[in-house]
């Protein structure tokens, strides 16, 4: 009712109403206004609406990530930024810098260094280049910063590789690595690095024929490529191609690369091939050239000495490893192993060249081969007892930093037991646990296959899961659920992406196992099939357009997106 008046008898006058246009711009303006007022919760609410209205605009997602970071939800912020890089715009390099800040705020300084370094490598003249340099200087000064130093001074890159495929290989995600690298090779057929890593992925997947063919193809176009030669020597040996193996090893044995990365690759390869004297000479030359040899180089040199039976030299080197990197415990661990070998009267000590976590070699079922001249009852076993290893690993699982806990989960799962199952249940049910730790715990549960229901805390709620494979068979055998995976696999195979089709099958098998107790109704298999293809590309860090995928499967973007994020959330595909 208008101010000061009553109702007028007769025909009512039509009133003009100004309709508010509810679109992305509307909510963006309110989000900015909320930021100006320092009302972060309201800004978050409006930026979420902006993303809903314009889901394909990467800037909207970055704004959302920024507010999440301001609110202290650094993990969710990084998940949004990962989504931008993997799905919307892989060239939005500033996301790496934003993620570095988030990791620093989480106290994960190695990851902060890695992402700041990654930003400088892909965009050295970028808007945040100076800030990234300053961050690396501070982290290196305050927390050691070996990863950052390796990247910045051009020396050997042993860990924290910026390359996605290398990280997949290091984490044992060989199928993902192969799918990712096949796509890269299709785009850049002459790229030697990608083809070398692809040959390794095939080797780890057990496809020796493809591994050999891919490595040989690198040498056809790059005859002097050392990485390809080293890989090929290992492949020839595994395939029993003795003549080719001997000819190639004779070539490698006399090489002495000057560049650190090549020297490390060759030395490690010669060690794997039991050519320990050549490995010792290579690592010895490398250590002399470096003003301060890294612990990984000193360890490799010590490993060569130990394999040759030069125990005094190995002890000196492992003492230097311990002095340079006491926190890892690697130097102290191998000194103890060496002491035991001496007490047993061993003539040599076969140890690996990789710079690994302590006790990584001593998982259940591991039996250390006796060296020449070692008798069965000449003293105590130099390897720690299974109980001691298990106790140490469980302590790390409960008290270590997130990155180390993620690495140690596969080792404790190898031991099994009620306490391991309890620990993994606690990780999966925790709302505050880091997603990469929960990912490892999820993989561990698939291996353990515990009895009864396991509850998993997801952003959308608690998901009950029965990890026994037989419990999900009825769901997977339903015609509409079979149709989903058939559609996605056929589409990928028709596009020549057979390896990615295998990734999709893996994801679907895992998803049906996780979701079968609360399975959604499937009305349109094409929606789920499109979402499954997107999930496979997302897991392998392959860019895709939801719009294009929706058009190919003739479904709506919104419906596809809803199912995609259900798969990603349930299978914890956030990286």
Q: Secondary-structure map with pairings?
A:
Elements lengths: L23 H13 L3 H14 L4 H13 L3 H15 L5 H13 L2 H14 L6 H15 L2 H7 L11 H7 L3 H14 L4 H13 L3 H14 L4 H14 L2 H12 L6 H13 L3 H14 L5 H14 L2 H14 L5 H15 L41 H14 L2 H14 L2 H12 L5 H14 L5 E5 L2 E5 L7 H4 L2 H16 L3 H18 L9 H15 L6 H8 L3 H15 L4
Antiparallel strand pairs: 1-2
Helix pairs in contact: 1-2, 2-3, 3-4, 4-5, 5-6, 6-7, 6-8, 9-10, 10-11, 10-26, 11-12, 11-13, 12-13, 13-14, 13-15, 15-16, 16-17, 17-18, 18-19, 20-21, 21-23, 22-23, 25-26, 25-27, 26-27, 27-28, 27-29
How would you describe what is shown here?
The protein is an all-alpha fold and 575 residues long. Among the domains are: 21-89, Tetratricopeptide repeat domain (Serine Threonine Protein Phosphatase 5, Tetratricopeptide repeat); 387-450, no CATH class; 472-571, Cyclin A, domain 1, CATH 1.10.472. Helix content is 66%, strand content 2%. The chain contains 29 helices and 2 strands. A two-stranded antiparallel ribbon has the order 1-2. Strand 1 and strand 2 form a beta hairpin.
Which characteristics define this entry?
2 strands; globular; 29 helices; 575 residues; Serine Threonine Protein Phosphatase 5, Tetratricopeptide repeat; disordered N terminus; single chain; two-stranded antiparallel sheet
């Amino acid at each position: 009712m208008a101010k000061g008046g009553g109702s007028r008898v007769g025909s009512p006058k039509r009133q003009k109403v100004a309709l508010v246009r509810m679109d992305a711009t509307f909510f963006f303006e309110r989000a900015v206004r909320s930021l100006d007022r320092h009302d972060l919760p309201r800004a978050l609410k409006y930026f979420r609406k902006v993303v809903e209205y314009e889901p394909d605009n990467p800037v909207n997602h970055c704004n959302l990530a920024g507010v999440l970071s301001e609110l202290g939800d650094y993990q969710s912020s990084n998940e949004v930024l990962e989504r931008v890089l993997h799905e919307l715009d892989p060239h939005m390099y500033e996301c790496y810098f934003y993620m570095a800040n988030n990791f620093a705020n989480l106290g994960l300084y190695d990851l902060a260094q890695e992402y700041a370094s990654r930003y400088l490598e892909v965009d050295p003249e970028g808007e945040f280049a100076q800030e990234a340099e300053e961050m690396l200087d501070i982290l290196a000064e305050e927390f050691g910063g070996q990863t950052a130093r390796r990247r910045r001074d051009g020396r050997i890159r042993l860990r924290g590789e910026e390359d996605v495929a290398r990280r997949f290989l290091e984490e044992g995600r060989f199928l993902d690595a192969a799918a990712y690298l096949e796509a890269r090779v299709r785009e850049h057929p002459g790229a030697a690095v990608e083809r070398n890593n692809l040959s390794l992925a095939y080797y780890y997947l057990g496809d020796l024929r493809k591994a050999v063919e891919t490595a040989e193809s690198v040498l056809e176009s790059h005859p002097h490529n050392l990485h390809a030669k080293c890989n090929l020597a290992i492949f020839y040996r595994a395939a029993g191609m003795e003549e080719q193996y001997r000819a190639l090893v004779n070539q490698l044995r006399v090489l002495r690369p000057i560049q650190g990365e090549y020297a490390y690759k060759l030395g490690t390869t010669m060690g794997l091939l039991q050519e320990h004297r050549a490995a010792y000479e290579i690592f010895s030359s490398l250590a002399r050239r470096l003003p301060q040899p890294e612990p990984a180089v000193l360890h490799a040199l010590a490993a060569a000495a130990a394999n040759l039976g030069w125990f005094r030299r190995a002890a000196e080197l492992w003492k230097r490893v311990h002095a340079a990197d006491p926190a890892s415990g690697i130097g102290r661990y191998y000194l103890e192993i060496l002491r035991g070998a001496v007490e047993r009267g061993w003539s040599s000590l076969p140890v690996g060249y990789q710079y690994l976590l302590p006790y990584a070699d001593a998982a259940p079922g591991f039996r250390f081969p006796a060296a020449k001249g070692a008798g069965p009852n000449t003293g105590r076993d130099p390897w720690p007892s299974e109980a001691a290893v298990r106790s140490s690993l469980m302590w790390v699982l409960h008290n270590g930093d997130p990155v180390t806990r993620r690495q140690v989960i596969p080792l404790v799962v190898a031991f099994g037991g009620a306490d391991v199952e309890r620990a993994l249940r606690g990780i999966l049910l925790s709302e505050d646990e880091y997603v990469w730790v929960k990912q490892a715990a999820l993989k561990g549960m698939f291996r353990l296959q515990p009895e009864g229901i396991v509850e998993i805390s997801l952003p959308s709620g608690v998901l009950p899961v029965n990890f026994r494979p037989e419990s999900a068979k009825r769901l997977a055998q339903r015609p509409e659920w079979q149709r989903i995976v058939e559609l996605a696999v056929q589409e990928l195979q028709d596009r020549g992406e057979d390896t990615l089709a295998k990734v999709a099958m893996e994801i679907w098998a895992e998803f049906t196992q996780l979701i079968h107790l609360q399975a959604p109704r499937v009305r349109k298999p094409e929606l789920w099939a499109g979402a499954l293809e997107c999930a496979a590309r997302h897991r392998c860090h392959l860019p895709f357009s939801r719009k294009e995928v929706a058009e190919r499967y003739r479904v709506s973007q919104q419906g596809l997106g809803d199912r995609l994020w259900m798969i990603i959330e349930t299978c914890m595909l956030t990286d």
